[in-house]
From TrEMBL:
Amino-acid biosynthesis found in the keyword field: no
Main localization, broad class: cytoplasm
Full protein name: Translationally-controlled tumor protein homolog
Organism of derivation: Acrobeloides nanus
Keyword Transport: no
Residue ranges of every copy of the TCTP domain listed in the record: 1-162
This protein's UniProt keywords: Calcium, Cytoplasm
One GO CC term, this protein: cytoplasm
Location of this chain's protein in the cell: Cytoplasm
Molecular-function annotations in GO: calcium ion binding
Protein family according to the UniProt entry: Belongs to the TCTP family.
Protein purpose: Involved in calcium binding and microtubule stabilization.
Amino acid sequence: MKLVDGLIWEFKGRQVVRKEGEIVLAGANASQEGEDMDEGTEEHVERGIDFVLNHRLQEMNVYEDKKMFQGYIKDFMKKIIEHMQKNGKPEDEVNDFKKKIQAWVMSLLKPDRFKKLAFFIGEKMAEGQGEGQVAIVEYRDEDEGEVPYLMLVKEALHEEKY
């Protein structure tokens, strides 16, 4: 997890395969423990990105159209800016956010980058209950192949302290 430009939280993901009811511990290596062998059983298997499966995110293909995405992001950024102002953020911070977020959105809309994006929402949003931000997943080419990165706007998150 890293914060990019004080604006976007990025989470590096990975493709996983899970059996129904399987508990996955952080750092576990199924191949070393012999758990990745197919035993011929008819268990339900899930395949996907770890953070998508962990948080039961639902893919939103509607935003694969640039115009639809631009409409969503414009309304979403307006809500964030209103929230920042309502909560007393200094005007210079709000203006800095506006500049940075506009540059970030423009970078997402570049054709070579936009085609590598996928859009996800939470379970409750998919059922029409509640609000939230659309999680943007970008597939980046790295040494180990295509790697998914989840991107969330920092100002749109509610921080919980334990």
